[in-house]
Amino acid sequence: MSIKDRLLAKSGNIGVAQPASEEPQSRERDSTPKTGPGQMLAFRQQMLDHNKQVESLKSELEKFDGAQPVRKLDPKLVHRSRWANRHDDSYTDPEFRDLEERIKATGGNVVPIKVRPREDGEFELVFGSRRHHACLINNFPVLAQIDEELSERDVFLQMEHENRERKNPSAWEQGRSYQMALDAGLWPSQNAMASDIGVSQAHVSRSIAAFALPGTLVEAFDSPNDIQFPWVKDLTGLSKLDPKVLAERLRQAKDVAERTPKKVFAALMEDGPREAEAPKAARKNTGLVSVSVSGKDTKVVCKKTVLTAEQQQKLAELVDDFIQAQLGVKPTA
């Protein structure tokens, strides 16, 4: 061994270059706190960060608070509610055909209908019957909002409001719907129903009167939907006529050639076209008799005339005969 080798062995190879290590010379410091207080501070910071994330997520979730799922359904799985008020004729009129063409153009309804789940896994229609029917007959999936928390009264109210905002039901359809709700006990009275729905009690009463018209009068029109609200009072009066008089009015309505609702109504009210009558000789009016209406009473006044008891009786009989003939009022027993 040389002197150099012996010196290096004794000095532990001091000063001799060591081979480069395969590991990097510098390492990242471990940031994990080593002391108890440091670990507590780090844990506290983590909790603060997590709380911020939770609050952010809650804020995003609140944007969807009360939102209901909307998805496309097979229209065959959606069934009419017991409160449905649309007559079948509502799915054949020009307005429905226009709606159907728009739905065809978009491949389905854009505005969702509303449904609620049934126990059998299918759905009950709340509103949107015309949109649903258009999708059904054209084999389109129907876009529907699903609401699981509706009571029977909720279903009726939402259907009522939605229908009036879109295509108002006819007087007859509206009356049928109101009568069904009252019969089922959804409301104890017409007043209570009108208050919740947001319509007048007179509107509810007139609608129900339209639905209560005798079938023979309703059938005089081409569709129950032809009956208009302003006509209901007059049609109700017609139903009280003598059967022979009413039968003649119905015959006149049936014979109307141009069958518009207004012309059918006019024929029923004897305002339709008549066969020409022989002109009557003009009569002179003395001006001594005047007739006026006050409330539900019609008054006949004979001016400057004093009638005997016998003449008064005769006049009363003449007026009574006139009322029976013109209005079909039956004499009291």
TrEMBL record:
GO cellular component term, pick one: chromosome
CDD domains with a match to the protein in the record: RepB_like_N (cd16405)
Domain ParB-like N-terminal: from-to ranges: 71-163
Coiled coil regions in record: none
Protein name in the entry: ParB-like partition protein
Entry similarity comment: Belongs to the ParB family.
One example GO MF annotation: DNA binding
Record SUPFAM superfamilies: KorB DNA-binding domain-like (SSF109709), ParB/Sulfiredoxin (SSF110849)
Gene3D superfamilies, per database record: 1.10.10.2830, 3.90.1530.30
UniProt-listed GO biological process terms: chromosome segregation
Region (Disordered): 1-39
Species per Swiss-Prot/TrEMBL record: Cupriavidus taiwanensis
